[in-house]
Write the structure tokens for this entry.
Amino acid sequence: MSPARGRQRRQARRQGTTPSGPGPATPTRYKMHEKLVTFGDDFVIETANGAPAFKVDGKALRLRNTIQILDSAGNPLYKVQERVVRLKDTMIIERDGKTVATVQKALVTPLRDRFDVEVPGQPPLHVRGNIVDHEYTITRSGAPVANVSKRWFRVRDTYGVEVMAGEDHGFVLAVTAAIDAI
């Protein structure tokens, strides 16, 4: 690699862009608070360095429990609702009143927790790992979409969600909130 190309890559990493164009070159890590992704609670999802990125509005005392993911300005992005009277635990993710994903827990999980996320018109997402301990991976067609881990933060009851570049961060966080709620 030429010295000029190496300088370009280092500069792009510092600026958070790819050498070929704008956009994050590396995954973005968010800080989630365990047990706060519950119905009736409101909190802020922060980036790893503490900057507010999204808001969560938990709505309780409704026929179906609901969580709303809002952008940092308070505009609604996604609504996560539980579906009752189903054989499998199910959460629906909506955007602008339309269902964009269905999150279901697998019935038989002998060794690890598994969830499947059906996204109309796209390949499904697969969630595998230890959900209770917040150590799992979300993949699409075998490629990682997000990693969830408690190891990244030393604060108690906090875990991280690392969303890969090019993914809809709000949607991935809504999937994570749905899994946490189930």
Summary: Helices lie at 3-15, 169-181. The two ends are 48 Å apart (CA to CA).
